[in-house]
Design goal:
Blueprint: H1 6-18, H2 22-35, H3 40-56, H4 58-68
Length: about 80
Amino acid sequence: LPQDKLMEISVAKAREMAAKGKFAVAAIKRAVRVAEDVDLASGLLLESGSFGLAFSHPDAKEGFSAFLEKRKPKFA
């Protein structure tokens, strides 16, 4: 990134992530941290398990509803 745009782009990305469901973001961060220390098969297993948990979380229903209703989601 150009040095003069670093803060602007970083803040925009942080706001974008903050608007997502906290449960899903936490699962993604956990998977990325763990992936550094495990083999591919273990990382993929963690990823699929995390997806299943996130998909069953109430935020998933809210996300789908908001999409269908063409509105911004209101995550817990």
